Amino acid sequence: DTGVSQNPRHKITKRGQNVTFRCDPISEHNRLYWYRQTLGQGPEFLTYFQNEAQLEKSRLLSDRFSAERPKGSFSTLEIQRTEQGDSAMYLCASSPRGQGAFEQFFGPGTRLTVL
Amino acid sequence: QKEVEQDPGPLSVPEGAIVSLNCTYSNSAFQYFMWYRQYSRKGPELLMYTYSSGNKEDGRFTAQVDKSSKYISLFIRDSQPSDSATYLCAQSSTGGFKTIFGAGTRLFVKA
What we know:
- By secondary structure, chain A is mainly beta.
- Chain A has no helices and eleven strands.
- Chain A has strands at 5-7, 10-13, 19-24, 31-37, 44-50, 53-57, 65-68, 75-79, 88-95, 105-106, 110-114.
- In chain B, the strands form two sheets. In chain B, strands 2, 4, 5, 9, 10 and 11 form a six-stranded mixed beta sheet that branches.
- Chain A binds chain B through residues 4, 31, 33, 40-45, 48, 50, 55-56, 91, 93, 95, 101-109, and chain B through 4, 6, 8, 32, 34, 36, 41-46, 49, 88, 90, 92-104.
């Protein structure tokens, strides 16, 4: 399978705990995006990497959220001191360089439930 | 006001019907317009895109952009039960690094 993969697929945690999600993009894609999606809403942009550089962050990404993409390969999204409002689907997407940059390929998502 | 507005539905049609899905947008700077399809508990998948204005056809699907009215449409001909999904319209910057999604319209095609 050469698509975008995300792990874990589901995560249940208690309020106040830290969680970390991983995304493995399509190997030749240099761009990587994180989105959050809640029920009945479209994906909301969180952050964007080009190679290892984090070039854009949404104001939605509070100081409890941090994302990394070491060596421009996989990426991790960490949420510290989780709150019930963090419960959502966290989607990762990747896109190639050049003219196809806007064509984002999404992973299956990580569903987070904060109790 | 959201940058991309979309009627959430649900929209229920019989098999074989022509489906019309619509969005309005407010940001004229973004030139790429996309339609994504999202099945339940899956990530979105790109269905079609258009650059600037005009029509684009791909099999049973036609995407249309009317920049004068800031209106984006997706038409599905001969709809099938397998088309039952949530359809998300989106705008993207030319560089592709910022994409704004609508809330999605849930479509049910009844056999």
